[in-house]
């Protein structure tokens, strides 16, 4: 672990700060401080500013329109944006830029890169992720959405679920089964599908927070051109795994900053409400402080590894387990600090469904109650805690592997065929 930044990082940091000072509004307090509609409108126009100034797609090469930054520069940008509470892109950029774009750079044909990457950057194409299905979440290889070649087109039938941002997207990358006779993880193809057609239906799912951030997506004879395959036909599993690696990305290197901001805010709330005279609350705040410090050091560890060219692997599961459980603990603590007010919350609900509280968001009961609900999902999305523990046990500790019942052809698995 290296706790110091080289001098060139400081120079670059100054440049990023100058950009932020010059372009954020004078009274800027963080994206969370804006009412929802204003925040959405600001993010939309801010995304254009980022695009014009080379702050989108930080790691993509310049030839394809990216910023061409080194890993260290990318982390410095992420840190400065996190400190300023400024968005790093639009609501679908995690799917378009971080997941699909990076995966396309590895697996795409020249033609695919030329066509799709500029459209992702300009915001013309907005993507979502069609992986999970009702019977395929942790066990993603069990997916049953089918695609059959009909002349020059794939015809897709089946269902995806928990599709975040699907209601804001016009394109979806779909894992579809194209050879049902092959073993489970083979016979899957990664398809690029335009959602603007009658065969694609998006139905919102209402969450317990009251928001409707994710969806079911139904395919009924939906079509995409034959060449809209990323990687090989029936070779989609390898592409899917590259994309999941990109989903974890270098985010771990900066996430402790967000959790620090959130804890400082809760500490202020506890003081304002006189809760810090309760020894158990004090103890829980101290425990949270210790955990945020551990996260900071885990971040430095991830950053150092990243700078040495190490891609996130099994060790990313430790960070995922750690932050998601910390987040549930701290938001439970917030509910206890709020007491009865947490049952009838007032104020502004959170802007984000994922990760920590948005910087600058009001320190009121509605915001904390919303963040509390959202934190429940943190131990499910991007791989459940049980699955992360399996990875840590098997791949880091070298414990015996769990029994697996899925080595045969896909259609021999009970319940499918
Ligand atoms: C907020 C949110 C956003 C999401 N966004 C998207 C998205 O945009 N696109 C997308 O494709 N998906 C998305 N997902 C889906 C997410 O990836 C799945 O929910 C997740 O992989 C778990 O799958 P599942 O819900 O089918 O649960 P299951 O896999 O059915 O798991 C049920 C329970 O069994 C446990 N379990 C399963 N297998 C094992 C095992 N081998 N060992 C021990 N325990 C096990 C799990 O830990 C869990 O507790 C999202 C989910 C959430 C909550």
UniProtKB/TrEMBL annotation:
Cofactors named for this entry: FAD
Domain spans labelled Acyl-CoA oxidase/dehydrogenase middle: 128-221
Ranges of residues in domain Acyl-CoA dehydrogenase/oxidase C-terminal: 234-397
Residue ranges occupied by any Acyl-CoA dehydrogenase/oxidase N-terminal domain in the UniProt entry: 7-124
InterPro entries: Acyl-CoA_Oxase/DH_mid-dom (IPR006091), Acyl-CoA_Oxase/DH_mid-dom_sf (IPR046373), AcylCo_DH-like_C (IPR036250), AcylCo_DH/oxidase_C (IPR009075), AcylCoA_DH/ox_N (IPR013786), AcylCoA_DH/ox_N_sf (IPR037069), AcylCoA_DH/oxidase_NM_dom_sf (IPR009100), Mycobact_Acyl-CoA_DH (IPR052161)
GO-annotated cellular components: plasma membrane
Protein keywords: FAD, Flavoprotein, Oxidoreductase
Entry GO MF terms: flavin adenine dinucleotide binding; oxidoreductase activity, acting on the CH-CH group of donors
Family classification: Belongs to the acyl-CoA dehydrogenase family.
The protein's name: Unannotated protein
Organism, as annotated: freshwater metagenome
Lineage: unclassified sequences, metagenomes, ecological metagenomes
């Amino acid at each position: 672990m290296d706790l110091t930044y080289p001098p060139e990082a400081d120079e670059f940091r100054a440049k990023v700060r100058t950009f932020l000072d010059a372009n954020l509004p004078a009274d800027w307090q963080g994206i969370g401080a804006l009412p929802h509609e204003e925040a959405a409108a600001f993010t939309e126009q801010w995304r254009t500013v980022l695009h014009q100034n080379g702050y989108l797609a930080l790691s993509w090469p310049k030839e394809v329109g990216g910023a061409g930054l080194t890993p260290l520069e990318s982390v410095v940008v992420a840190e400065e944006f996190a400190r300023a509470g400024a968005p790093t892109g639009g609501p679908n950029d995690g799917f378009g830029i971080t997941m699909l774009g990076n995966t396309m750079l590895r697996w795409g044909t020249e033609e695919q890169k030329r066509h799709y990457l500029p459209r992702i950057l300009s915001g013309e194409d907005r993507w979502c992720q069609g992986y999970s299905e009702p019977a395929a979440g942790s066990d993603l290889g069990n997916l049953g959405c089918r695609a059959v070649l009909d002349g020059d087109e794939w015809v897709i039938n089946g269902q995806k679920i928990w599709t975040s941002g699907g209601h804001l997207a016009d394109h979806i990358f779909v894992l579809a089964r194209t050879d049902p006779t092959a073993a489970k993880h083979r016979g899957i193809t990664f398809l690029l599908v335009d959602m603007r057609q009658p065969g694609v239906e998006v139905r919102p799912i209402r969450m317990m927070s009251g928001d409707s951030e994710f969806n079911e997506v139904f395919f009924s004879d939906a079509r995409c051109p034959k060449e809209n395959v990323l990687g090989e036909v029936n070779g989609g599993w390898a592409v899917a795994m590259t994309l999941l690696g990109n989903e974890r990305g270098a985010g771990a290197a900066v996430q402790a900053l967000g959790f620090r901001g959130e804890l400082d805010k809760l500490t202020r709330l506890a003081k304002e409400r006189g809760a810090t005279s309760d020894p158990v609350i004090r103890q829980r705040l101290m425990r949270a402080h210790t955990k945020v410090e551990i996260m900071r050091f885990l971040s430095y560890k991830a950053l150092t590894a990243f700078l040495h060219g190490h891609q996130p692997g099994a060790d990313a599961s430790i960070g995922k387990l750690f932050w998601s459980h910390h987040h549930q603990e701290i938001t439970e603590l917030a509910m206890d600090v709020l007491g009865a007010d947490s049952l009838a919350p007032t104020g502004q609900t959170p802007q984000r469904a994922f990760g920590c509280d948005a910087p600058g968001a009001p320190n009121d009961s509605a915001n904390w109650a919303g963040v509390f609900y959202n934190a429940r999902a943190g131990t499910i999305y991007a791989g459940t805690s049980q699955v992360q523990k399996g990875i840590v046990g098997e791949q880091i500790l070298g414990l015996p592997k769990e029994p697996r019942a899925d080595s045969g052809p896909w259609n021999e698995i009970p319940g499918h065929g």
